[in-house]
Design brief:
single chain; 110 residues; alpha/beta; 5-stranded mixed sheet; 3 helices; 33% helix; 24% strand; globular
C-alpha cells in the first residue's frame, strides 16, 4: 500500500483541468489541462455534444467548477449567453451544475 507521502505527491501531480472555452461565430474549442493540454473542437450548433463532453469532464473532475471563457469580439452577446447556458447544467439534471464559475478572459481569442 502507498504511504501518505506518495498519495499526497500523486494528488499534486494531477494535471489541473484548466477548462477553457474559446467561442467564435462558427465553432467552440474546449481546451483542458495545463501540463498536457488537450483540445476538442465543436461546431457552434453542436450544443448537445458540447454538453455531453462537459458532463464527462465534470464526472472526471467533480471538484472543479471553474471555466475560462474566451470569446471572439465579433460574436453577439446573445450567442455568448446561449453558450454559457449550455455549460451550466449537466445533461442529467440529477447531476446538478457543471461549471458555475465563469472567468472571462478579456484578451479574447488571438
Amino acid at each position: 500500500s502507498q504511504s501518505r507521502y506518495e498519495a499526497k505527491n500523486e494528488k499534486e501531480e494531477k494535471d489541473p483541468l484548466n477548462l477553457t472555452l474559446e467561442v467564435t461565430k462558427t465553432q467552440i474549442v474546449v481546451k483542458t489541462g495545463l501540463r498536457t493540454p488537450r483540445s476538442r473542437t465543436f461546431a457552434s450548433e453542436q450544443k448537445k455534444e458540447i454538453k455531453d463532453y462537459l458532463t464527462e469532464l465534470k464526472r472526471q473532475h467533480p471538484k472543479e467548477n471553474t471555466m475560462i471563457l474566451r470569446a471572439d469580439p465579433k460574436i453577439s452577446f446573445q450567442n455568448l449567453v446561449t453558450v454559457i447556458d449550455s455549460t451550466q447544467n449537466a445533461k442529467d439534471s440529477k447531476e446538478g451544475k457543471l461549471f458555475e464559475q465563469i472567468v472571462f478572459d478579456n484578451n479574447g481569442i488571438k
